[in-house]
Structures are given as structure tokens and as C-alpha cells.
Amino acid sequence: MGVEIRVEGLTKSFGRQVIWQDVSLTLPAGEISVLLGPSGTGKSVFLKSLVGLLKPDRGNIWVGDRNLPYLSERELYETRKLFGVLFQDGALFGSMNLFDNIAFPLREHTNKTEAEIKRIVMEKMEMVGLIGAERKLPGEISGGMKKRAGLARALVLEPEILLVDEPDSGLDPVRTAYLNQLIVDLNAQINATFLIVTHDINTARTVPDNIGLLFRRELVMFGPREMLLSSEEPVVRQFLNARRVGPIGMSEEKDVSELEAEAKMGADPGRLPPIPPQLMPSDGRIRPSQHPPGAWLRAHGIQPPPGSFIDEMGRNWIEEWPRLVAAQGGTVGAAAGPGQVPPPGPPPQGAPPAGGPHR
């Protein structure tokens, strides 16, 4: 089971430049969360802070019962073993073949025999579809294969938390779709806590259980996927719909005159698009952390946009869900049984009052 991460009042700056301030959120154990934001808003800095590579100016990062900024070097070293990290470019050693790249953390941090290391490495390579490529060098493989090799390396120490930085960077849409499916399948298998930093809107709309958005040095909103995909918050709506109308400009944020000009012209932010079904594991089973489609919206009295939760084959996943749950014995982790809605729990960070509009 993954580990909960609780961030409280986190602030980070470099000299006089404030990257973000007073960021608070909770990454639920075992769930997939996505962090979005325009370029330059400090998403990668946030990941580095979570793993203890950068120390915040103030605030707390609770990893289970350990507060990262206040740990000794030895305690921090041990806590980092809970993490696996997939870097933007894979960060593979160019002089090592894929087998040795993936085996590196095991040789560096454990006393396992070479036979044990081989078993673990081959198991992880099979998980990411790289069997047969063990002896290839990073320079001999595609960008997608490098990402998968980096992912296999991030998994060899059996992490309880997986941080994924821009998995779609440098990949075409088809490879990105395959990688998204792999991430969902891995979460179903290992049940770790995932945090993905991405700019890919399709990834944000279909993969995670939770979404957060950084903008203007603040966390604008963080909460269940359905909360953000139905939000009327201007910056959230603009970013998730990839539109020019809204607070985000070419240089991160628009000035007052630009916003006033848009308002005078009656610029239309557009209708909210349908909320797509969440990506399911390849084998069709429900992930332990997955919630019924539409459950958050129903619990908060919000009507989804027309056409929501209908896939490309015309199936309505609100109607399909009870059959999926029944096929798996009627109980699936966080998922509700047929016809049931799980308790909404405490309001997520940035959530409006129950039943209220997202302004």
C-alpha cells in the first residue's frame, strides 16, 4: 500500500524569486495524482522538494509520520527509499546497458546477490515491456523505451511512492497513450502513491484520481478529478481546455489591460467539455483507489456536462460500473458497490461548499 503525503504551508524561493508559497495538499495513499501548471510554475521544484533534494523555506512535508524538512541526513536517506522517480528524459547512464541501468539502485542500496538482482530486474523489465532489450545501450533505443527503462529502474526498490516528471515529454501522442496505460496498470499492480507532473491535457483528464494546478506562485486548486473537470474557476477551465481566453498568457499570466480587453470583447471561455471515463487497467479490473464515475459530482449536487462518462464505443460508464463491481465480488477497495455512492469524506483542498458553483 502506498504512503500518504501531506504538504502544509510549503513555500520555496531562490533568492528574491518566489517559486510558490503556502502550498497545502494531501496525496492520498495508493491514488494517482496529477500536478499541472503553465511552464515555469515550479512543478519540478515541487517534486524535488517532496523527495528532499530541495529544502523549502518554510512548511511541512509529512511522508507518513516523518516530516522531511526536519529529518537528519541519515533519516532522510532512509525515507528516500520509499520513493521511486522517473525523470523527464529517463536519466539513464549512457555507458551502461539497460540491464545495468535498472540494476543500479539494487547494487547501490542493497546487499542482494547477482542472482536476486537478475530476477528483480527481469521482473521489472517484463512489467514495462522491455524483455529482450537488456543489452541495448540508451543511445540505441527510442525515447519511449528510455521512459520505460527509467520507469523500471524507479520500480526495482519496490517504492511506496512514485514521482513521475513529464512522462509525455518528447513522446508522440500514441506513445504517450501507451505510457499512460502502463502507469494505470502499474498502480493497479503495486498500489503505490503516484504523483505525475505533466502538461498533457489528455493525461490529466483520463488518468488520475486527483488533479492539482499551480499558477501565480500558488496552488489554485487540488482535489478529485471530477471536481476540477467540472470547475468554473477561470484558470482551471482555461488550462484544462487549452484555450487562449483566460488569465494565463504567453508569459505565464496576462496583465490587467489584456483581461479587460477580453472582457470588453465578450470573449467566450467556451462550454465545459464532457468528462471522459477514467482510464481502466488493461485487464478490466477496478483499481483499489478508483471511485465510481460521477460519485463526487452526485455527492456535491453538481450536474456533469452533457455526454460525460461515455467512451468512444458509446458505453456509459456510470451504467457499466455496477456490473464491473458485481463481476469482482461487489467490493473493490474505495469503489462503491452496485448503485452505491461512497461517502465524500472531507472536502478536498480548494473545493467550494457542497452543491455550490465553482467560481
TrEMBL record:
> Where are the stretches annotated Disordered?
328-359
Q: Which UniProt keywords apply?
A: ATP-binding, Nucleotide-binding, Transport
Q: Read off the SMART domains from this record.
A: AAA
Q: Which Pfam families match?
A: ABC_tran (PF00005)
- Protein name as it appears in the record: ABC transporter related protein
Q: Where is the composition biased (Pro residues)?
A: 340-359
The residues covered by the ABC transporter domain are: 5-241
Spans of biased composition, class Low complexity? 328-339
Q: Does the keyword Iron-sulfur apply?
A: no
The superkingdom of the source organism is: Bacteria
Is Transport found in the keyword set?
yes
Q: Name one GO molecular function term.
A: ATP hydrolysis activity
